Amino acid sequence: MAETIFQKIIDGRIPCYKIYEDDRVLAFLDVQPLSQGHTLVVPKEPAETLDQLSDESAAAIGRVLPRISRAVMKATGCSEYNILQNNGTGAHQAVFHVHFHIIPKPDKSSGLGIQWPAGRLDGTAAESLVARIQQSL
Fold it and tell me: Is 102 helix (H, G, I), strand (E, B) or coil?
């Protein structure tokens, strides 16, 4: 894996506005925020995409993500927010180190904007897909 800006932040070579840190996770303010309080939650383990992350690092993020979200919401006064996590360039990942965005949504014009072109789930195709996914677990 190529070294990323997040690895440099984790290593202390680039400063950040640190919100939280433990032995597996670092959380800090995004320097290009979509809204006030936009926070990044990053595992210290280098992994490009979520599927490459160890169970231990994933569990560590899972333990702190709700707590950090509550703190960001309380500090910003927002009650609505998005959690965003992208994997791969086609999914809009720009930094190739796993990271979660906590993006407060103070009003309709700030925060994350989303288009959701929903389709329809076919029952027969769904059953086949479920079987393939379960076999891959």
Answer: strand
Let me know if 97 is a catalytic residue: no
The token pair at 32 is: 């290009």
What tokens does 58 get? 């994933």
> Which candidate in 38, 92, 97, 99 is catalytic?
99
Stated pTM of the model: 0.91
25 DSSP β-pair partners: 43
Q: Is 133 helix (H, G, I), strand (E, B) or coil?
A: helix
Q: Where do the domains of the chain lie, and which CATH numbers do they carry?
A: 5-113 (3.30.428.10)
| pLDDT of 1 over the 80 cut | no
Q: What tokens appear for 5 in the block?
A: 């800006």
Q: SS3 helix, strand, coil % of the chain, rounded to 5? A: 35, 15, 50
